[in-house]
Every structure is written in C-alpha cells, then in structure tokens.
Amino acid sequence: MNLSIEKVASEVGCGKTTIYRRWPTKPQLVAAAIIDNIEVGEVPNTGDVVEDLVEHAWQNRENFRRSKNRSGNNGLLLAMFNMDVIPIISDSFMQARHTMGREIIARGVEREQVSGELDHDLIIDTLAGLTLFRITLKPEATGRTDDEIKDTYRSLVRSLIGRQS
C-alpha cells in the first residue's frame, strides 16, 4: 500500500500520533477513507428484477465515478481490494451491497421473474465483476453514454437469469 502516515498527517496538519490514535494501522485508515467516500445506497424496487439489478449495479458504478472525480483516478476505491483492507470494509460495505442484491433477486423469485434454482450469488458477483472490469481494465468501454452502459447491464442480467426481454 503506497501510503505514508507522515504524508497524511502533514496534509491534514496534525501529528502522526493523532492519526495512529484513531486508526492504528494503514489498512484501517484506508478503509475509513473508502467508507467515508462511498454510499451503500437504497435497494431499488421498480417492480422488475432486471431493472432493479441494473440500478443496483449502477450504484456501484456511481461509487467508482465519484471516487474518480474526487481523486482523479480510482485509487481510493481500488484500495478496497488490498488484502489488508478487504476484511475491514467487508462487513460495512461489501456484505451490505451483497445482501441488497440477494434481496432484489429474492423479490424477483417471488414475482416469478427469476428461478429460485439459479445461483443468486453468482449473478450478484458477475454484475459487480463487470463493473470493476470495465472501470479498471477496460476503461475505453466506459466512453459510451450512460444509457448504452445500462443497456449492457440489462443484456448481461437477462442472460444471467435466462430472460429474453
């Protein structure tokens, strides 16, 4: 992790002991910065599981977009994938987002829009994976309009749940 507590302390105008008193480790400091700059969001409920999952995925995209606008790149949000940071933010963010996705799919099962036999965790993870991949490893795919990007998500969700339209 390319972070200096001394540099952070200097930037905010305090001693490094002050930082260590509140965040005893670099991963805890990074996790706090990430959590402070992202939103878990609300569970979408449009009445259609495809649109709900698209909106759920879009919330993740917006978190990356806000992170990039604040820092000039995705460094802060990508730091969440540091092996020392993951366990710290898992309970407060990742698990909450995953639970929201499972709620959306459970509603879809109740409405008979999704089969209860599908691997619901795989659907949620695939949507999150697409977001991460497109933003970090294939950024040229993000040059399209928001509507075009949402259509990509719709296509993926329909494929994952076996629904034509």
Structure description:
By secondary structure, this protein is an all-alpha fold. The protein has one domain: Tetracycline Repressor, domain 2 (Orthogonal Bundle), CATH 1.10.357.10. Helix content is 67%, strand content 0%. It has eight helices and no strands. It has helices at 5-12, 16-22, 26-36, 49-71, 75-78, 86-110, 120-136, 146-161. Helix 1 (5-12) packs across helix 2 (16-22), helix 4 (49-71) runs parallel beside helix 7 (120-136) and helix 4 crosses helix 8 (146-161). The longest helix is centred in the middle third of the chain and has 25 residues, at 86-110. It is elongated, with a radius of gyration of 18 Å. The chain starts with a helix and ends with a helix. The model has no long low-confidence stretch (mean pLDDT 87).
Write out key terms for the chains shown.
single chain; 165 residues; mainly alpha; Tetracycline Repressor, domain 2; 8 helices; elongated
